[in-house]
Design goal:
Four copies of one chain form a homotetramer.
Chain A (H helix, E strand, L loop, with lengths): L1 E6 L5 H8 L5 E7 L3 H10 L4 E3 L2 H6 L5 E4 L6 H10 L3 E5 L6 H14 L3 E4 L6 H11 L5 E11 L8 H16 L6 E7 L9 E7 L5 E7 L1 E13 L3 E5 L7 E10 L4 E2 L5 E2 L2 E10 L7 H15 L7 H18 L6 E2 L1 H6 L1
Parallel strand pairs in A: 1-2, 1-4, 2-3, 4-5, 5-6, 7-10
Antiparallel strand pairs in A: 7-11, 8-9, 8-17, 9-10, 11-12, 12-13, 13-16, 14-15
Helix pairs in contact in A: 1-8, 4-5, 5-9, 7-9
Chain lengths: 345, 345, 345, 345
């Protein structure tokens, strides 16, 4: 049995607590929060769990094997480092840190102490995203583009731009699904509230191949959209996360190139591009709650000393793109190279 | 009665011919094309119309008041200039020319000779786009963003990128609907067919105000999408051109700012943004064929010596953005200033 | 404060308990169920609530003012009658009883003892259905038809047909929204599982006016549909309960009659019907949880001795239609008159 | 070459003429109509076709092998009988006749003279309907139900109810797709215009097996719907004719029966029904214009003396159901047996 403490019982913490309480092999030992009324809420629902506002107490308890951190991003680094220094494995919310430097030090610390450092890239544990990876690996052909739209009305954040709040999901999905890592990023956007971070943004991601990726995020949209298109040379995917069951549609569509372009009588080149339109199919998806699956895997990784699917390196790659995108945003889309990330990955 | 000759009976020419044949006040005199079989097709359907492969013959005929040009873009400049030099008014397909220089010379020529120069920005004559302009002018509040997606499978062009083929529609709509003209543009994209122009592209348009615009065009998408979001401080619009009747939806949604942000107990700033969600409505739209309305207005402009809604200046502004976007595309999104366009407009 | 006991903690009971625990003016005193594990589930979540498997104990407690019954339909009559004989007000799940006779005796008992008898027609407390009633009363004109489709895959019931399980929702909505009560019903359907009740059914409801109503229910559909059309002489409504926010769309559409039909040359009458197509609008809806609102009103009714919106008479009218539809189903759609219901209503 | 004359150039006639002009093996010889302006329209577009208002002239011409009738229903019988008596093959619009008696005499006449009598059940020649038949025959398992909704605003007819105008499409599709013919029909509906036929109607069709069919047609709906559900024991189909490309979706969904129902502790039977949810797929469909395919087959049938897919018997079966439905409508849904039809089929 792996003893786990959850730090932070705000927006996401209750989901961690609920799932950890039911994951086989895990024992939920503590919930730690600075707010008394949040701790009272834990006690009312989980009478047998220890509550505390003292993080150090948790660290001192040798029955705690792992710490799950669900506090504001700005505190991730400090809490995770302390936890690892106390010999605890860490499961940390995304984005894993405020800066690349912090993220890198967390990765190094985990490596040095041979501890598991997992980042909560929840989406990569959904049936839909796992199915996409399967198709991208086997059947899509060359990957041409990845285009995601993630827009809705609210919730405006004060401390981070919409890129850190929404695009982080797409970046974690891309990191898992695509066969390559980006080499450069540019981003444009705008804040429509004086003194606040961008509430609309567009990210471009460049790769060494002909793959191109684009993410549109917006807190100020009249309708909610969660739609990703992935184009390949053999198949194309539409992933609509708002569809209740047919979230993934795979289209046997594309172009075929018919030899060399030729001249016609009007001296205008004509492309000999053919269009292929075949069946569409929507595979049945595993509908297990992603967080349950993810925490179960975290417990397995701790027990068997294996790397999780979204480990510190994945978290670092995502933070690097967020940091670069933020730089680019400030310069109306200047291209930022990501070479160092590749070395790390 | 305004005597009109149509030059070019390829893809779009037949639509011009069909509509001119029915517009009150217009007389369709000639159809001119270099291909004999196209001229035969005209004759079979419009036995009373003169057919010819000799453009000069058309220019010499004094009963021809105006020339409608529906030939490939590369020929627009030469044909339009000859027509104007012969004293003919011109109605030219979009984009109006290959380069800013050509477009500017066309505008100058029309001004010098006091001829009408209309550019076929068909969309600005649809009920949907006219309704959008009405709402943007009166009810939307400050315009925050304009976001358009125009993607489908095919038709790949050989001579122009997807920007010239598809984004030109969005640029002409924005030129008509938005209260400001862009001051800078950047564009990214990719060609997935060796030696051919970009088949996927993303354009960013910057303005002097906090307005931001973005266009996504793609010839290689598994589904057809024609969707524009316009966000304003008072209302937001969704324009879906594939909807059979409810193409425009107006949302009484947005944010309200409640005074100054304040500190809370956790030392984290909290934005006091409120979310407003009211009724949506889809106004009944005039479903008159846009091209019929447009040609009817062109005839009126010629008769009454008035400027058309989409005149040479509008056409030039669009070409300037296309040219700048093409430069930017070649440099992975470098920002290109558009200052001179503003002076012209 | 109104003391309330909930009887039955199966599928729906937990929703009653959760809401009663939060309704101002109510005190949740008991949860009663025959299954020990269900009572344990209550205790874990609501430590201060009394749990018991002895209904008589609840009845004897004078601090219990009202009983909420969420047990299988077959037990509603017996439990509700006992409760009323013990002087308790009653809130009972729908359908309120197995037979018209039972329902009528419940209504009579409540009247005799001046007790509140509320039936849980949850939908009539939703923002969407309340908005529909408002429009039907004011703006729809003459009501022409009411057409509902409520289909999905599962859950097959063993003891009741799909009519009692799904059409009961539509009947309760119609009872609330329409200006008239039906005078006759016919129903057709089929069971595709040997020995089991109908899993697909179609109900026709006839009225004294030209209003016609129809309900399609199906447990064996490949897609989930919850869509109602209401046609009126001035407006038409589409109610799609699966839409996340725009559940109600109001169309300013219809026909206009232009004088007398006339003969034309072919001796065929031509109707002079005109078609009116105006704006559509989707009003913002109150999204308060219907059950919370409903229980709050029940508490008010008990305190102020007022009739609830869905009282025993409404419940009886619905049961009468269900009973008649069941008779008709057994006779391949024979028309069954509902005259006695009208008298009661 | 088969010489063909088209009788009637109103709403549908131009489609026949356009297609016949292009079908290999056919020669369009005459278009006959009583209205001079319609004949002029033919001449303008098809200068080489003979136009006439004299049906007898057409009949006398021995180069005319077949007559295509696109006149009002009330005239089908007389025109078709005259044509067959003159030895001409017949292609007649649906419904093929006003009464079962007329339809039967047409069938008999064709049989006696060994002439081809084809009925224009256009939908059975679409890629979508042909695909449905293929799946129903091979893969759907036992057919449980067929449910169609065909509603929109307009066009109100004066001489026939909505059943003859819209349900005729569904009946012709069902006749082609389903493995059984109906044995009884009932119909309910309403007219909302004084003195006019029903503008809304619901048809129930009963079969010898457990198959049940239902059709909802309405001229007074706020939205256009063309949706058919077909449920089978192995697969289920959704056919949405308004979808631009994915008109047919095949769901690998259904129920599985797990042995005998059993009692549980609460003495309530529980069904052991399981729900199966697998992939969905949308096969690529042949998008050839149905009428072109149909007329091509008619020409082949005439040349090779073969029966068309929709022959006089199919037309008669559809008319029999329309006639019975009309009787049932007048009696608020009384069940009408269709036994004689089965004998004919």
């Amino acid at each position: 049995m792996i003893g786990i403490a959850v730090i932070g019982y705000g927006y996401w913490g209750p989901n961690l607590v609920r799932n950890i309480a039911e994951v086989p092999g895990a024992r939920l030992l503590y919930v730690c929060d600075l707010r008394k009324e949040r701790l009272a809420a834990v006690k009312a629902r989980y009478p047998s769990v220890e509550i505390t506002d003292d993080f150090e107490q948790v660290l001192r308890d040798p029955s705690v094997d792992a710490i799950a951190i669900a506090t504001p991003v700005s505190t991730h680094f400090k809490l995770a480092m302390k936890a690892m220094m106390a010999g605890k494995h860490v499961f940390v919310e995304k984005p894993m840190a405020w800066t690349v430097d912090e993220a890198r030090r967390m990765v190094d610390e985990a490596a040095r102490r041979r501890l598991i450092l997992a980042v909560d890239h929840t989406f990569v544990h959904t049936g839909a995203v796992r199915k996409m990876r399967e198709i991208v690996e086997n059947g899509l052909g060359d990957v041409y583009y990845y285009d995601s739209v993630r827009v809705n009305l609210g919730l405006f954040q004060h401390d981070v731009s919409v890129v850190w709040d929404l695009a982080v999901h797409d970046l974690s999905i891309m990191d898992y699904v695509l066969p390559e890592k980006p080499v450069a990023v540019s981003a444009t956007g705008m804040s429509h509230v004086v003194g606040e971070p961008e509430n609309i943004a567009y990210l471009n991601l460049f790769f060494e191949s002909k793959l191109i990726a684009h993410i549109h995020v917006n807190w100020l949209a009249p309708v909610k959209v969660r739609r990703t298109l992935i184009g390949g040379s053999s198949k194309m995917i539409v992933y609509d996360d708002l569809e209740p069951s047919e979230k993934i549609k795979i289209y046997d569509k594309g172009i075929t190139l018919n030899g060399n372009p030729q001249r016609n009588g009007e001296k205008v080149y004509q492309m000999l591009v053919g269009y292929r339109t075949g069946d569409m199919y929507a595979p049945h998806l595993d509908m297990t709650e992603a967080l349950s699956r993810e925490l179960s895997q975290f417990v397995d990784c701790v027990e068997q000393n294996q790397q999780p699917i979204a480990d510190g390196h994945a978290g670092l790659r995502v933070v690097r793109i967020l940091e670069a995108a933020t730089q680019s945003l400030a310069q109306r889309g200047r291209l930022i190279e990501l070479e160092q990330t590749r070395r790390i990955a």
